[in-house]
Amino acid sequence: MKSISDLGNLSGKKVLIRCDLNVPLDGDKITDDGRIRASVPTLNALREAGAAVIVLAHLGRPKGQVKPEFSLAPAAKRLGELLGTDVQLASDVVGESAQQLAAGLGDGDVMMCENVRYEPAEESKDEAERAELAKKYAALGADVFVSDGFGVVHRKQASVYDVAKILPNAAGKLVEKEVEVLKQLTTETKSPYVVVLGGSKVSDKLKVIDNLLKTADTLVIGGGMLYTFLKANGHEVGTSLLEEDQVETCKNYLAEAEKLGKQIVLPTDVVVAPEFNADAPATVVAADSIPADQMGLDIGPESAQAFANVIRSAHTVFWNGPMGVFEMAAFANGTREVAEALTKVDGLSVVGGGDSASAVRALGFADEDFGHISTGGGASLEYLEGKELPGLSALADN
Ligand code: ADP
Ligand code: MG
User: Fold this and answer.
1) Which of 45-49's residues contact partners 24+ apart within 8 Å by CB, and which partners?
2) Rounded to the nearest 5 degrees, what angle is found at the Cα of 62, between the Cα atoms of 61 and 66?
3) pLDDT number for residue 205
4) In angstroms, what is the span from residue 398 Cα to ligand 2's centroid?
5) Atom number of ligand 1 nearest to Cα 199
6) Which of 9, 176, 252, 320 is most open to solvent, judged by the fewest CB atoms within 10 Å of its CB?
7) Is the CB of 267 inside a 6 Å radius of any atom of ligand 1?
8) Taking a C-beta distance cutoff of 8 angstroms, is the pair 13, 51 a contact?
9) Using CA positions, which residue lies closest to atom 15 of ligand 1?
10) CB atoms within 10 A of CB 139
11) Whole-angstrom Cα distance, residue 258 to residue 83?
12) What is the 3-state secondary structure (H, E, C) of 60-92?
């Protein structure tokens, strides 16, 4: 994996860069600009080197269709403010508008193509289709490709993987920094090593547990996935998030953990409400007696304390996924307690995941309170699993 300093003299060159600018929005207002800020150091370095910069990025899941609500306009505007220069946004991804803007770029200028996921080929499973689109990205006049969208390096997508195959390339500063921290988490972990998992992408995250059980000493489970575990332990979970087809898998994990002498810590109490609503009446119930008409939206106070104790006594902690629906004040306590505990760790504490990062900032913590806040959730989990990440291995090839 090369650094941008290995790319030679970039003055007068056009650099195509993949960034992760997938920020949470409320209408067209950005509620956490962390990922945009994280992209700035590499972009500044490229501009200072005299390069003209073409930014590729995605927002949300438009699934191959042009949908205005997924426009990168808010991200382009914010990026412009942070860079102190106008960032022009093309009205298409690789069409006439993008080509025209790219052709007119001067040294130090920055432009952005529209949401790459407007193009159906971006996420296609068909290699040829993706390669075709990658060629169009390169044909915007790019001399080199820089991969700096750490949150997407686990995706085999045209702007992440295929384009790296056809252009001289390097990792950006963000990708380098993320990989450095994750390396520490896989090679120099000081025991006890605790992994805390939560969030809503249940089946995605369940898949990684198998591997984490081998490396971590303790796995703490909250958020949406905990209900599938409760079910595996024979409890009813009311209307909570549940992946029925993963219940058996969870049973196996629990058995596997026992065999390996590892601990899986589940909540003993949860905060429930009759509906997914900020104003719904919230009550605390025992985790093994969730009423049939209620859904679990946070871990309970007793569990939050227990989780915090486990975390505080660790020397290495990786946390991905909020403990509850932190966006609603009534269900934010578990996430707050876990975040607080991470700030007290004597050792390395890493927060990974878009929503997890937003959560700690929204709850008033500073980035410096943690060892590292990773911009990628899925990417960091897959790295910790020991999987090969296509976006990184494509870089190694060149
Ligand atoms: P990250 O982006 O950090 O990887 P995810 O995207 O997996 O995290 O999950 C974040 C989302 O999980 C948040 O929007 C939060 O509201 C939701 N969530 C957490 N706990 C629950 C729960 N019990 N039920 C439903 N959603 C939940
Ligand atoms: Mg998320």
Assistant:
1) 45/4, 45/173, 46/4, 46/10, 46/15, 46/17, 46/146, 47/83, 47/85, 47/108, 47/110, 48/108, 49/4, 49/9, 49/10, 49/11
2) 160
3) 84
4) 31
5) 9
6) 9
7) no
8) yes
9) 325
10) 11
11) 51
12) CCCCCCCCHHHCCHHHHHHHHHHHCCCEEECCC
Is the minimum distance from the CB of 297 to ligand 1 under 6 angstroms?
yes
The alpha carbon torsion through 79, 110, 113, 132 (nearest 10 deg) reads -130
Q: Which residues of the chain have pLDDT under 70?
A: 397-398
Please tell me the number of Cα atoms within 13 Å of 376 on its side-chain side: 28
Q: What percent of the chain has pLDDT over 70?
A: 99
Atom of ligand 1 nearest to the CA of 201: 7
For residues 137 and 163, give the distance between their C-alpha atoms in angstroms, rounded to a whole number: 7
Asked if the bond preceding 192 is cis, omega within 30° of 0, the reply is yes
Task: Determine the Cα–Cα distance for residues 157 and 58; give it in Å rounded to an integer.
Answer: 11
- Protein residue closest via CA to atom 16 of ligand 1: 325
d(CA 344, CA 59) in angstroms, rounded, equals 34
Contact 223, 197 (CB under 8 A): yes
Tokens read off for 149: 């969208």
Conformational region of residue 308, where left means phi above 0, alpha means psi within -120 to 50, and beta covers everything else? alpha
- Cα separation, 148 vs 376, whole angstroms: 11
Q: What is the pLDDT of residue 187?
A: 83
Cα(116)–Cα(64) distance, integer angstroms: 8
CA of 296 to the centre of ligand 1 (A): 12
Catalytic residues: 35, 201, 354, 378
